[in-house]
Amino acid sequence: MKIRLKLLSYILAMASIVCLNGCNMQTTGDEGAMDIGVAIYKFDDNFMTLYRNALENYVNELSKGDKAYRVTIVDGKGDQAEQTNQIDTFIANKVDVIICNLVQASSAATIIQKCKSANIPVIFINREPTAEDLALWDRVSYVGADARQSGKFQGEIIAETETKGDINGDGVVSYVMITGDPENVDAQYRTEFSIKALNDAGIQTKELFNQRGDWAQERGQELTATALANFGSEIDVIFCNNDAMALGASQAITAAGRTVGKDIYLVGVDALEEAQSLVESGKMTGTVLNDHVAQAKKAVDVALQAVDGGMIEKNYTIDYVKITK
Ligand code: GAL
Hints:
Blueprint: H1 2-22, E1 25-28, E2 34-40, H2 46-62, E3 69-75, H3 80-92, E4 97-100, H4 108-118, E5 122-125, H5 131-134, E6 140-144, H6 147-159, E7 173-179, H7 185-200, E8 205-212, H8 217-231, E9 237-240, H9 243-255, E10 265-267, H10 273-280, E11 287-289, H11 292-307, E12 315-317, E13 321-323
Helix pairs in contact: 2-11, 3-4, 6-7, 8-9
The structure holds beta-D-galactopyranose.
């Protein structure tokens, strides 16, 4: 009997582990503990995967001793309607606080109204709502980074190269821009401010190609391959709004027989481990650290402060950091 019970509990434990990895929801912590509901825009995103794991680890760290927290993380699958339902479920389950990585920043007001009616504080992360939306309630906050800074750093990395970005020496920096989804302010600002930094340094630029890669590696590869086939040696720089797309771009650059640092430059944002290795080996010109660990910790700290009834600011900003060899 004892053996059978042991076997049964083993099977149940295994099932929950499988669910943790394969389901669209991950929960850790004790029942009866303070409940933190976390809605992520999409699990299938390299950077947000690191972010949510850091967030979960931090809550578990804090959960030791007399403090008990339970965190439930759900996957919005890139669908705002799905995420709004998940927020409704968190509210129906009376979680203590919600941390939300919006699918569409334009849905912030709807989510805030729902949380306000239920008096559950909401901390937005990664996708910044407008100042107008953040002003709708005092138990709302945004924890993130200023995407203008990441764009500026990308531009500066290129401006600081030996040829000031003009690796083919034709007098103008001709570039390819691979963007995240256009509704996302990170994509908008990185696109704008990377080029602005070059222009502010007195460098002339020319856009050859600008397409959305939706933050995904495969798209980065496809789009870069197309751009290289169409514009060849005219291209000086491939700007990617994030590293996942830059990893794809790097594959396409190698496949086209081009060499970063010799006849083309490549920059991304996030400082994913794979991208840092490429920077180290010279296959990427640089990247910009998007500090997911600091952002995750801050988001949890602010969430707990909000539950305690403490004053919270409208914005908490974590600095980006330039990464070159
Ligand atoms: C950005 C990040 C991207 C992607 C995006 C999702 O900050 O650089 O890699 O995760 O957030 O909104």
